[in-house]
Amino acid sequence: MFSLKKKVKNKVHVEASICEAYIVEEISTFISYYFEPHLRMRINRVPWHDDGGAVSSNGNLSIFSNPRRPTNKNAVRGRYLSKIEFKQAHNYVLFNCDELRPFIQ
User: Fold this and answer.
1) 68/72 Cα distance (integer angstroms)
2) How far apart are CA 44 and CA 36, in angstroms?
3) How far apart, in whole angstroms, are the C-alpha atoms of residue 101 and residue 78?
4) Which of the listed ranges 59-63, 67-71, 73-77, 98-102 does the model predict with the highest average pLDDT?
5) Measured between alpha carbons, how far is 71 from 89 in angstroms, rounded to an integer?
6) Which of 17, 19, 39, 59 is most buried when burial is the number of CB atoms within 10 A of its CB?
7) All residues at 6 or more sequence positions from 28 whose CB lies less than 8 Å from its CB, including other chains
């Protein structure tokens, strides 16, 4: 509902306004496939948290070496994981880390 409410420009014709915004979005997405690859579009834009910096691997595992900005401390709320969530997160790290593949095999 939030994304649909943002598309409303004419409060008299709400449905038509949403339809028009959706059509414009679809057309712009379709057309952007035919532009040069070096042009920044909605499809190939850099994620907001990627600052493009080089990441040093000071003994860190490859799964934790993504070039990203740290999250704002105010945005992260403290929460404890349940036992199931902790086990799922642990398994994700184990099975998606390149350095641990020889041990898994």
Assistant:
1) 12
2) 11
3) 32
4) 98-102
5) 19
6) 17
7) 42
